[in-house]
User: Fold these one by one.
Assistant:
Number 1:
Amino acid sequence: MDIDNLEDLAKELKNDENAHVIALFEEYAKTHNITEEKLEQTLSKEHDCFKCESCHKFYCYDEYSFFDEKCIYCCDTDDEDGEEF
Ligand SMILES: [Zn+2]
């Protein structure tokens, strides 16, 4: 598959059928000589594509929690942490 621009990349990253999105992301950064941090920023600002720090997948705004830097699915599963003392 050919990914020529960020719009294509964002689309591929959010596609559930792609198993290795983090590899796509890293490869794009390498090929275009941008840092992964910068790429992540640009994707989130301009292409509605947010990286979950927990499951390393990409989500649109509605499925992502800025506060936790995680997708809403990871936030759900992490809830049990708070119950132990
Ligand atoms: Zn997640």
Note: Residues 37 and 67 are 18 Å apart (CA to CA).
Number 2:
Amino acid sequence: MLTENVEICCQLSGILQTTLGPCGMDKLIMDETNGLMTTNDGATLIKHLHLNHPAAILLSQVSQSQDQLVGDGTTSIVLLSAELLKQANVLVTSKNIHPSHIIQVYRKAQRFTCDLIDKLALSLTPENTKSYLQMIATTTIGSKIIGINNVHFRDMAVEASLRLENFDKNVFVFKRTGASIAHSRLLDGIMLKCRRLGVSSPTSVKNAKILLCKISNLSSSRSKIHNVKIDLDGGEADILSKIETDQLEQICDQVFSTGANVVFNCGAAIHYHAEQYLNNKGVLCMGYVDNSDCEMIATATGAKIVSRIDSDSSSRLGKAKMVKQILLADELALEISGCDNLQGWCSVLFRAPTRSMLNECEISFNDALCALSEALKSKKVIGGGGCLYMHVAEKMRQGARINGGVQQLVIESFASSLEIIPTILCSNGGFNASSIISQLSKLHSSPESSPWMGVDMIEGKVFDTVNAGILESSSILNNIIKGSVDASEMILRIDQNILLKPDKSLEQLGYM
Ligand SMILES: Nc1ncnc2c1ncn2[C@@H]1O[C@H](COP(=O)(O)OP(=O)(O)OP(=O)(O)O)[C@@H](O)[C@H]1O
Ligand SMILES: [Mg+2]
């Protein structure tokens, strides 16, 4: 059973391995519902694979949970888990070591790895924070589609991570096709979909006071009477219409008296007469604002939704320095900028020529943001390019020689598994992996060696990754190690996969 499960996990890792690192390739996914998309993000790729083997599903869940926890390292976690399993399977089948012994030693090795990473990690200080964050962003973005505009997205991601005060992923995203990805930018506010405003409407309002309302009378003053036919002669119809107009104007006067110069009606239209009436007073109005946009406006501007106008309504207005209608790729949008309430939030406008590129931009930017937030949270960074995988592996081997016996065999297997990440980085770069890995092993086995010697993905040689500015957050690597050991333990413990089929009799009875 173990061999079957391990083979399946290795097949999954085989699909992902060509996407690892800055020279990783993309996958083109043809999805019946979403059409074509290209990606090299591990979690996204796995989400689109229709997996039906339980071991592959378990491994995919580990990658998804890495995505939810820290947002990056979703490819590495699958590759490392599969390699740990492959090595364990060799120990079980050829050396007759029981899986529970392997699990015990893997756990010990995992603690050793995480402790060494914590010990070696560099600390973020007020002096180095900005430059270290830039290096982390460059490393994360370098392996993604937005890597072609690395400096632009690096600066966007660093600024966004600093705006996210509490490090939650409070990000508003607005996406529009029709321009190159270099036109993506951070917004100093929010952006909404917008329909064409009335002819007499202002297209921009400075020092906006925003009324966010849910007033159905603004869409029509008419009471709704269904299935009743009333014959009116021309004069009577005019009188009724005048009453309606007067009522609408009364509501508009009440709205205007709150001091609002921008009005959003949530979920309902604004009657064209009311719109014109308010436009003539210099008020920008928009109806049919959907719930998610209402929440976004409320968060950004501090506006509170009102359902009727009273003396309290003025105090419920939101504020923004500017509300402006803009044209993006032949479609209108409304930009609300200068919002004081957006502290701890960031909002981003993504532009790209196609919808699939837009999605990939968002995923890649999110990876960078997660890596930066993790670094800011843990205040610890490490070198990339597989340097710590190699360093820990060598230190582990040196320690294992003292232990001897079964423990030494398992630790050596764990150490060899760690080398899979730098090995795949080398092969994806088209370099001679075995020569680079043996150079790195030699370097890291010397007591004076720097722990930061890793793979130079441009020249195909070894270099000091920290000096070269290839940095990562240490907590992401810690999570990769812990998650991979968890995944391999889960799969090593399985001695039988049981597939339960629905009860036929129930099925025949039509209950299922
Ligand atoms: N310029 C670089 N030089 C050397 N190594 C790099 C460079 N850029 C990235 N890497 C390495 O590439 C690996 C990350 O690759 P990648 O981002 O494709 O995978 P992941 O983070 O595991 O998964 P995903 O990003 O799909 O969630 C890390 O080990 C990182 O150190
Ligand atoms: Mg990554």
Note: Residues 72, 140, 143, 367 surround magnesium ion (ligand 2) (CB under 6 Å).
